[in-house]
Amino acid sequence: MTKHAYPHDYFAELYRVNNGDPWQYEQRWYEKRKREITLAVLPYPHFQRGIEIGCSNGVLSAELAERCDYLMCLDANATAILKANERLKHEHVEVVQGIVPFDLPNESFDLIMLSEVLYYLEAPMLQQLINWLNIHLSPQGCIVACHWRYEIAGFHLNGERVHQLLKQQLDDHHYLQLKDHNFDLDVWTSGLVSIAEQEGLG
Questions:
Q1: What is the pLDDT of residues 80-99, one digit of tens each?
Q2: Order of strands, edge to edge, in the sheet holding 137-148?
Q3: pTM of the full predicted structure?
Q4: I want to staple 52 with a disulfide (CB 3.0 to 4.6 A). Which of 10, 21, 113, 134 is the partner?
């Protein structure tokens, strides 16, 4: 599998015909609601080091930046990177253009966000990403995955299959599962007791 497996033309056309916001992140209630739910399930109020894999134009990134001391935002599309850089003018946010899984960093992270991205990968690339996740989550970290459940034209995977594979192959504790009619949302943690127990209520 080479970097050419990434569908450059598909995303270039999406961003070109939709003015840099193919999914209307700021306009659609569906996207705003899903974002709020995703942020609400984070098991910690704050993180030292976070990474958003597939950051698109940075709408979710801007809210994650408020919860992280350092946030890396990674996307392969040049227009997405341009829009994210325009939006994320924070010293503690780094926007990086790169292809997953080939350009993933070697550092560990306390928060790894995977939102609406993994079904675009071919199976061998997804396997490499899962291997990376099993190595690069910090001892007190969490992985959050949120994906549209149904088929996406032109791609082999869908959200339900992606989440099945994550549940089968991630080494960390499966902390939370939420099944919306339209999307799956799952959280994995390493070494986390319940939130109530963290605050002495367990």
A1: 999 999 999 999 999 999 99
A2: 93-97, 68-75, 47-53, 109-115, 137-148, 183-189, 173-179
A3: 0.92
A4: 113
